[in-house]
Amino acid sequence: MHEYEIVYIFRSSLTSEEIDGKLERFHALLTEQTGQISAVEHWGKRQLAYPIGKERNGHYVVAQFEVEPASLPEFERLLKLDEDLLRYLIVLSEGELPLPPSMRTDMRTETARGERPPESGPDGGGEPEAEVKSEPETESEPETEPEAETEPEAESEPEPETEPEPEPETEPEPEEEKD
Amino acid sequence: MAMLKKVCKLCERSIRQVNYKDEHLLSRFVTDRGKILPRRATGSCARHQRQIATAIKRARYLALLPYIRDYQ
Ligand SMILES: [Zn+2]
């Protein structure tokens, strides 16, 4: 059994009853096969950072569950059949420690960007600490991410290109050693 | 221009795992065009830089962050 986390983005025109109904149906598939849902958190409707199809908003739900990796393909097959599910992402649960409050607040004020949906952080997960590193085989993640949609540049972007920097980075900075 | 010694902000705050759902945190690690900032600009350590990059890619996929921020 592995612990996973899924983020669902539903069409925002759905009612919360409809969404609950879908979640129930999705999750029934997992629990039928010895899986277990440990948390479901509704973020509610929020604006998409870019439109998905014609949709500009989505209803986000995050759930954590434990299941045999072998039952994921069938689960995903079910998800893909649902046209009201704009997108989903399944990743191995990272234990999801809530961020320290100090950080959350001042990070937020520095970046204040207007509307913010209900806090996403402290997922109602119970036993964060111990679980954190329990997943050595991170392999299961790629199997969901890339194939899930058509986003062309999805996982490919290298990351370097930015503004040209005046100074070449010369000093070798022993970052890893301090603290 | 001061060449400030950069310290990894995430280490400083003892963040163990960068969460892809925390787009406010992540938005500090992208340019105003939405590109991932390189380590030399943020001072992040290698481990956190890797986490940041993964988290940003997930957040983009989930439309929590834009792939490219366009100014029209
Ligand atoms: Zn660090």
Features:
heterodimer, A: 179 residues, alpha+beta, Alpha-Beta Plaits, 2 domains, 5 helices, globular, B: 72 residues, 30s Ribosomal Protein S18
Can you give a write-up of this model?
The complex is a heterodimer of chains A (179) and B (72). Chain A is 26% helix and 27% strand. The model of chain A is unreliable at 97-179 (pLDDT under 50). Chain A has 179 residues and is of the alpha+beta class. Chain A has 2 domains: 2-92, Ribosomal protein S6/Translation elongation factor EF1B (Alpha-Beta Plaits), CATH 3.30.70; 112-155, no CATH class. The longest helix of chain A has 17 residues, at 16-32. Chain B is an all-alpha fold and 72 residues long. Chain B has a single domain (9-61), classed as Irregular (30s Ribosomal Protein S18). Chain B has 4 helices and no strands. Chain B has helices at residues 9-12, 23-26, 39-42, 46-61. The relative contact order of chain B is 0.23. Chains A and B meet through strand 2, strand 3, strand 4 and helix 3 of A and helix 4 of B. The structure holds zinc ion. Zinc ion (ZN) binds at residues 8, 10-11, 44-45, 47-48 of chain B.
SSE order of chain B, one letter for each helix or strand = HHHH
Within the CATH hierarchy, at the fold level, what is the topology of the largest domain in chain A?
Answer: Alpha-Beta Plaits
End-to-end separation of chain B:
32 Å
CATH C-level class of chain B is Few Secondary Structures
Question: What compounds are bound to the protein?
Answer: zinc ion
How many domains in all of chain B? 1
User: How is the main sheet of chain A built?
Assistant: 4 strands, antiparallel
What's the architecture of chain B in CATH terms? Irregular
Profile the largest sheet of chain B: none
Quick one: CATH superfamily of the largest domain in chain A? Answer: Ribosomal protein S6/Translation elongation factor EF1B
Taken in chain order, the helices and strands of chain A follow as EHEEHEHHH
Query: What is the number of helices of chain B?
Result: 4
Given helix and strand content, the structural type of chain A is: alpha+beta
Contiguous uncertain segments of 5+ residues of chain B: none
**Tally of distinct domains of chain A:** 2
Work out the helix count of chain A. 5
Task: Name the average pLDDT of chain A.
Answer: 68
Structural class of chain B: mainly alpha
Strand content of chain A: 25-35%
The largest chain-to-chain contact, stated as pair and per-chain residue counts, equals:
A-B, 50 and 41 residues
Radius of gyration of chain A: 19 Å
